[in-house]
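May I ask you to review the protein record following this short note?
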Amino acid sequence: MDKYSDYKIDNSTPEEKKKHVKEMFDSIAPTYDFLNRFLSFGIDRLWRRRLIRLCGDLQGMPVLDLCCGTGDLTHEFLKSGAGVVSLDFSLGMLKEGVKRGWLGDMNLSADAARIPVKDGSFPIETIAFGIRNIPDIDVFLRDAHRVLSVGGRLFILELTRPEKPVVKLFYNIYLKWVLPFMGGVFSGRREAYAYLSRTIETFLEPNELMNRVRESGFSGVERIKLTFGVASIYVCSKDR
């Protein structure tokens, strides 16, 4: 296991970790979405659609999709009539998304913790399965709060560790053995999927993440558990 695999907060010098993660995602971009579908049994699509429904009427709504990858979530927003700016620091992921037709015309290759847009630009921001790849999480949350318009919401969709013992047992077996093995078979990059597995195991507990959201200036945060608690949507509000 490489030195970057455990999730650790680093708000001061995150550049080396980010460089490693960017190179890893560039390397698995061509197979990333197929493996997401295969390894999640397609349930990840249902989670994204749940997030979309929580956003309400999206016709003409400006949305910032952070850590967008190849554009799975962006594509759902575009189908709902939103105007989406998609941001990811992996140029390989963005290129793959453009090739598949999942991204729109407004795409940024940039660091999600240093969003290159002005204050209060978006009423809706999203980050799906990306926050556990951001070491400077407090910097990210403060910048996401800055960019969000008053009364807006940040939606965080992320994998979480289930609490029920039986579900937790099977989930841990899947994370430790099935995910790295199958990911390695199809992508040729077992170490990348071992990294993804380990970050799920070591990412912040939900309560700690919610506390950090509040400490970053958000007025409230609600957690919605999905599929026996193996994923969660956090709805983070910026009060009027």
Remarks:
- The first strand starts at residue 62 and ends at 66.
- The first helix runs from residue 15 to 39.
- The chain has one domain: 15-237.
- The chain has eight helices and seven strands.
